[in-house]
User: Fold this.
Amino acid sequence: MSDTLAKYKVTADVKSGIDARFEPDHLPDHYRPERATEDSSGVDLRADIERPTVIDPGESTLIPTGLHLELPSHLEAQVRPRSGLAYKSGITVLNSPGTIDSDYRGDIGVILINHSGDAYPVNVAERIAQLVIAPVVKTHFRYENSLSDTERGEGGFGHTGQD
Assistant:
C-alpha cells in the first residue's frame, strides 16, 4: 500500500454535471480515477497493494484502492464489478454495489470474491472494480396502518411464473 493518499473533492450541479478535482501531480497514475471511454458511467478502481494478492476459490478479500473522496451530501459513490473480470475470471464485488456515503473519508476498499474454481492473483495496480457517482434521494418514512391495494399485492419472488 502506498504512503500517499489520493484525495478527491467531488462537486456537482445539474447543468455542468459532476466535477472531480485532482490536485497532486506526484501520485502514481493508478490513483487517478479515469473512465475507459468518454461515455463510461464509472471510473476504474485499481488495487493499491505492494505485491500480488491471491484470492482462492470461494474466498473473499478486502483490497484497498488508495482513493479517498469528499462528496456533497446529495451524492453517493457505488463500487461495482468490472463485467470482463466477472465473466472471464469469476471475480466480482461481494457487496455489489458497495455504497460509499458522502460523509465517509477513508480508503475506498473493494471486497472481491472468487466464484471460479481457480485461484486468482490480484496484481499491483490492477483494475479491480468501477466507481459510479450517483444522486441520493433523501427520504422520510411515515408509519401507516395500511397500504393501498395493487394487482401484485404481496406476491413476492417468482409469483409471476416462468416464461
Notes: Residues 6-135 form a domain with the Deoxyuridine 5'-Triphosphate Nucleotidohydrolase; Chain A fold (CATH 2.70.40.10). The longest strand covers residues 127-135.
